[in-house]
Amino acid sequence: MSLLAHQLELLAPARDADIGIAAVDHGADAVYIGGPGFGARASAGNSIADIERLARHAHRFHSKVFITLNTILRDDELEGARKMAWDVYHAGADVLIVQDMGLLQLEGMPPIQLHASTQTDIRTPEKARFMQDAGFSQIVLARELTLQQIRAIHAVLDPARSQLEFFVHGALCVAYSGQCYISHAHTGRSANRGDCSQACRLPYQVVDSKGRFVAHDKHVLSMKDNNQSANIAALVDAGIRSFKIEGRYKDMAYVKNITAHYRRLIDELIEARENDPLQAPLARASSGRTTFSFTPDPDQNFNREFTDYFVNGRQDDIGAFDTPKNPGRTIGWVTQVGPNWVELETADAATILHNGDGLCYYDLHKELVGMPINRAEPASPTRLNRWRVFPKDDVAGLRDLRKGTELNRNRDMDWVRMLEKKSSERRIGVWVRFGETAQGFTLQLTDEDGHQGVATARHAHEPARDAERGLASLREHLGRFGATDFAAIDIAIDLAQPWFVPASLVNQLRREACERLVGARLAAYQRPQRAVPVEPPTPYPEDTLTYLANVFNDQARQFYARHGVKVIAAAYEAHEEEGEVSLMITKHCVRFSLSLCPKQAKGVTGVQGQVRAEPLALINGKEKLTLRFDCKPCEMHVVGKIKRAVLNEAQAQPMTFYRTRPDAQAAH
Predict the structure, then answer these.
(1) Domain residues for 364?
(2) Which residues fall within 8 angstroms of residue 441, CB to CB, at 6 or more apart?
(3) What per-residue confidence (pLDDT) applies to 601?
(4) For 79-129, what is each residue's pLDDT tens digit?
(5) CA torsion sign, 348 to 349 to 351 to 357?
(6) Does residue 308 belong to any structural domain of this protein?
(7) What sign has the CA pseudo-torsion 284, 285, 289, 291?
(8) Ranges for the Peptidase U32 collagenase domain (predicted)?
(9) What integer best gives the mean pLDDT of the chain?
(10) Does one domain contain both 481 and 510?
(11) Which DSSP letter does residue 539 get?
(12) Three-class SS of residue 238?
């Protein structure tokens, strides 16, 4: 089944099948994972056997498996992508997340549902509506949108045909997704082909048009991490139905913790709306309820501190300009530095340090310095907040560490060890009915989705010696679902009189009924169907496409031509743009973040009219990029050109692609 308008979907990332299974067990309604190739995380691929194993587990709970086939493809890669699409479809995958429009033009694709990747850069109602009409059942919106913009997009869509998906947590690309080419221009590694070198996390000198330093060694393109915990209800009301967690490179502990965190928030919202007669009811997109053996806490995982980005309008504090590393939580300060140890005092006496914890601090240049510790021990028998730690690294090499230095903890080994163990249970609710037959007894299980599993056994009807005790024992054994996927909602015992029923017989009936219920659930599971595109083809909102459209194969060119586009330029990776162009387009503005925005200066006496959005330069070593500011849409362009070494390497390994930009006549 496709996602319905009243259903909320929690979509979790998975680096591998084991992490995907853990995500399902921690409450994910769907999991997205890379297949054997063509995913936008170059080193996060998985075998077909692992995809099949994950799908089998997910479908028990009617959770779905999405495959990321979201890179742009060369002509010679299309057949391999088509074959992989069939392989993952046969393995049980439910959805392909797609960037390259050539896949929609390609004949012989499996009947698998398609979702439009965030790499397709969907920011307007017109483009979202086009994607719906082209056959996408779910549309991943740009992270930079406000609630008002999301509402406007939702208003033009048909909820019976497509739903909106939005990133709610994790690392933020500073560029509009699909609109960053710095990595390819400087290294030949294309972000649109899953191999970004992350130039945005580097430190830069910011220089004005006269060569004066505006900022020194600042990570001015590095964003804090996305966290929409406070905005879930507002996003639902704006039209979001799928809540996506970033992190296909992240480890098991991250996926467990963050999935559990948003599972709780979404469940709380669903339950609140159930009890509010003025609100339309909401529902989970898969079956079962999840309980956790820990309290989810996003601060415990790697993060660059948090921002809700542009959801509530432009904010002052979206950047992680001092460091792209994890600063952690403040726990105390240094009281003494020894030859191979550091003594510290914690702000909270309840804070316990562990061997293997990670501590860090800011040096005098505001650079984060890591201090992993080998051993931690109490420094005082009477003062519980005094600790002596023995760092892994030479204390003498820890720059600017001194008495009074504030310390943070960015790795808590107690938390890490806890999440290495089993930390959740996901159970599907069942109604249990135990009754009798002419020759014995029957057990019927009916789950929350209406599926049934029934088992019967022959056994003599012998009156129980102690009727009350016998019924209590029978009820207790009927409710023991152990390691199955099920938990009893209600137990009904329908007997002519209290019979003696051995525990072994109850266990046999429950085991057989559970097996049949699992079989019934899997048999009833329906994968979502691929949407049928509108015919005749809906015209694309523009009739001219630049390299920013990422058209990298002839099938993609034919797709856009079929939808009315007259002029279609090749993707940046085709190397037809050898001069200076926009290598990144972003909603983040360095001038605004450094309080140099002309709009900020309006009305400020003595400043108004003096501040102009003149270009700035970013310098990192020998690399230089120009910042240009488009103030009407409030966007920044990072301008540069492709390196000759990248062009030379590409000539040594030529790509199969049309070499000239199609003109208007050829595009028909």
Answers:
(1) 325-420
(2) 434, 435, 456, 457, 459, 499, 501, 505, 509
(3) 59
(4) 999 999 999 999 999 999 999 999 999 999 999 999 999 999 999 999 999
(5) positive
(6) no
(7) negative
(8) 407-521
(9) 93
(10) yes
(11) P
(12) helix
The domain that contains 408 carries what CATH number? 2.40.10.170
Structure token pair of residue 125? 């109602």
Q: What is the rounded end-to-end Cα distance, in angstroms, of the chain? A: 37
Residue 503 host element (H or E)? helix 503-524
Residue 192 is assigned to a structural domain of this protein: yes
CATH of the domain at 274: 3.20.20.70
Joined together, the tokens standing for residue 76 give 């010679």
Is the pTM for the entire model greater than 0.90?
Answer: yes
The residue out of 420, 443, 466 marking a domain boundary is 420
Cα–Cα distance between 118 and 120 in angstroms, integer? Answer: 5
Cα dist from 295 to 109, 298, 329, 543, 575, whole Å: 44, 10, 17, 52, 50
Side chain identity at residue 173, one-letter code: C
Handedness of CA 146, 150, 155, 156 (dihedral sign): positive
Of 295-299, 312-316, 664-668, minimum mean pLDDT range? 664-668
As to burial, measured by CB atoms within 10 angstroms (0-12 exposed, 13-18 middle, 19+ buried), residue 646 is middle
Same-domain check for residues 134 and 269: yes
**Exposed (0-12), middle (13-18) or buried (19+): which is 651, by Cβ within 10 Å?**
exposed
Domain count, the chain: 4
Distances 210 to 218, 520, 608, 623 between C-alpha atoms, Å: 19, 73, 20, 18
Instruction: At 124, list the tokens.
Output: 């307007």
pLDDT digits (tens, 9 = 90+) for 564-605: 999 999 999 999 999 999 999 999 999 999 988 887 756 555
The pair of structure tokens assigned to 316 is: 């002052």
Please indicate, yes or no, if residue 313 is contained in any of the structural domains: no
